[in-house]
Amino acid sequence: MINKEDLMQKQGIMLMLISKDFLEKDVGDRIETVKNMSEKYNMARGTVQTALKTLQENGAITLEPRGHLGTFIRFIDHKKLLKISGIENIVCVMPLPYTKKYEGMATGLYNVINKHVSFSLAFMRGSDNRLKFLKEGRYDLSITSKLTANHYINQGEEIEIVACLGKESYVDSHALIVKNDFQGFTKGMRVGLDSTSYDQKYLTKEFFKDKDVEFVEVKYSHIVEHIKNNYIDAAIWSVDEVINKEDDLKTVELDLHERNLLDREAVIISRKENKAMIKFISKFLDVEEVLSIQSKVINKKIVPSY
Predict the structure, then answer these.
(1) Which of 47, 48, 99, 138 places its Cα 20 to 30 Å from the Cα of 297?
(2) Average pLDDT of span 57-81
């Protein structure tokens, strides 16, 4: 005999599973039959029916039977479904907020998404590092450039772009950073390369592909220090970052193909399997509001808050 605790546990699991399924649906969608859901989840029909009834009683959905046509959704509250499905907090990992553009992005995402669900940010250098922890499930979402996201997808990574934040939402552009007395490229010059950042690695290899240089592995955050100390001669760098006059450094514009504008656009990625998360963010993220807040932070009209 099934005891009450086991029965309640099954009903709870069924409720969470169906809630996640419904997060992918909208008003007007036809739902699966109770028979199909029972077979899909290996649950008794009564357990499925109880879960559907609970969702309706809690105001998460309203269903409308239409005879032989099936049952359709007349009303749906995605926020309630998110909570019932067990997703009470969303964590997004993004680059370290060392520029106003990143601070603005963080402020925009934090304030916009928190209107709908508890949302927090984590910060980590290196797009490869962020991908690793996203895949492991430590984070729900990650911020990268569109160039990097496309590379991961082309490499067969099971991720999906959830939202694109638009041109120059990630960086204004990349440039070559060198000392002020830089006279041009010389054979064997040492070029800094951060292998954990796909953008920096790709742009570096692309720019120097026809030049006889030595690539030196460095951390992106240490590039300025390494050039000042003559450990390296040059490196690809985001022009959003301020160079202090006393550092005796300058930037040289990169002459790269138009496709590399993708390194300037921020995108949000998630695990492809995380359909409920993808649906929720796609539906409720107001990109225009995020960009408006980002612009206000950049122009010092509001204080960063994330």
Answers:
(1) 138
(2) 94
